[in-house]
Amino acid sequence: MIKLPRDKVIITVAPTGHFATKAKNPNIPEQPDEIAELVHACYNEGAAIVHIHARDKDGKAIGDVDVFREISDKIRAKCNIILQYSTSSAPELTMDERLAPLQAQPEMAALNMGSMLRKDGTFFLNTRSDIERGAALMKEKGIKPEIELYHPGLIDELNNLIGKDLLVKPYYINCIQGTPHQGAMPASPQNLLIYLGLLPDETIFNVIGRAPAPVEIITMAMIFGGCIRVGLEDTLFDQNGELANNVDLVARAVRIARELGKEPTKPEEARQILGL
Question: How far apart, in whole angstroms, are the C-alpha atoms of residue 197 and residue 1?
Answer without folding.
Answer: 9
